Amino acid sequence: MNIEAEQLVAEYFATGTLSGLPDRHFIDGAWHASMFGDRMESFDPGLGRAFHDFAAGGKPETDAAVEAASRAMKGAWGQMTPSARGSLLMRVAGLIRENAPRLAVVESLDVGKPLQEAEGDVAGAARCFEYYAGAADKMEGASLPFGRDHIGFTVNEPVGVTAHIVPWNYPISTLARSIAPALAAGCTAVVKPAEQTPLTALMLAEILQQAGVPNGVVNVVLGTGASAGAALVANPGIRHITFTGSVDTGIAVMRAAANNVASVVLELGGKSPAVVLADADLDRAADDIIGAIFENAGQICSAGSRLVVERPAHAELVGKLVERAGRLAIGHGLRRPRLGPVNSHQHLLKIASYADGAKSRGIALATGGNACIDPASGAGWFFQPTIFDAVPADDALIQEEIFGPVLAVQVADDADHAVALANGTQFGLVAGIYTSDFAAAHRMARDIDAGQIFVNEYFTGGILAPFGGNKKSGIGREKGIQALRNYCKVKTITARIAGHDR
After folding, report:
1. CATH architecture of the region 273-461
2. In 18, 47, 380, 382, which residue has its Cα 20 to 30 A from 329's Cα atom?
3. Domain 3-268+477-489 sits in which CATH superfamily?
4. Which residues are catalytic?
5. Are the CB atoms for 48 and 18 separated by under 8 Å?
């Protein structure tokens, strides 16, 4: 562990908090208290108690932030060259790396996830800014072949002020993947982090300012979704919204955007299958599936929350998974366990209700199935790594997103049946395919309805790979060059260049 990270972890366990944590809105380059003085608490999921508090705002704060972002679009930021924006984003990437230990410790503490996972998230955020720094001056338009008497071309322009609604499960990485391309395109941003996990968004705003991003270009407003989030997406000054969260909230965001004819990218979750054929490397598949469902305690939109396994491999693969799940050490995120807590007590109750309901329906429980505590402290919001076996296709474990460390196993008769089971939900975010037959893998990749397909691996691709879902998993794509298009409007210019007819 990095020495600075060790010191921060020691400070937290000695004092119950960390010094210097941000606690106010960041608007127009300055820290602001809430207009009405409201406050909220940040909770440590590993101990189940509050460790910090922060300002909670609503419409007055979001209006001020949108106004600041609008002014910034007309100021120095709007005049900056793409290459200069790219240089700024590269400085941001460097500063994230310089501040990585503190960012990771705070992310782990706020979310609950194991520190090593938070370190990976912070490294990914730096890489995200680095990637879009290189793309800022490469957003070329196109020439239009009208013929010798006319000239025509397109110009990519920034769409304007953008809103970024960030979820609680991956605060810094989700924020980075949306504001980095927005800034590369020349837009300004108003960020509303989840009320459960606001801290690294505020820390990142401060890093952006240190890198030289002008005041008002990135603003962070704190508060609940009902107060700050709803006010932000309804503001007529917002021209684009990037939202990650639940289907129901995404629908509400889309309706609000429609009132102002603003564009949206919605990443709304999933019930993603890992499909394992009988000829697959079962040890490799088992290792990947354990990570796919139990990383961040299963609180991942693209988690491999379903296993669709061909019948001849079913018993052996489930046995391997149960054995591996039994070796996962549970503990406080800052102590680097394999499995950390879930983010809130309310969410723990939701996960437990799914497990209890499945048991009451007679679904076979292969392992886990209960809420638990950190054995070291006797506290925290934890749920055992859980596997339900041979689950019917119409069961809630298959059809609904639990968003926790719960794997539902479905048994397929053959590859075609596996594809049908994989497609048998309202979601279509990602899917994994495991087989030694590459032709079969490509046929299945063609036929499975999902925005991203992994073959003989899970969670691969990184910032280069466009990410987003089909069906109720969302609209649009983030990451990759594709994401830049979310933040551009295309202007077409045509002109007659021939002389007058005589």
Report:
1. 3-Layer(aba) Sandwich (3.40)
2. 18
3. Aldehyde Dehydrogenase; Chain A, domain 1 (3.40.605.10)
4. 267, 301
5. no
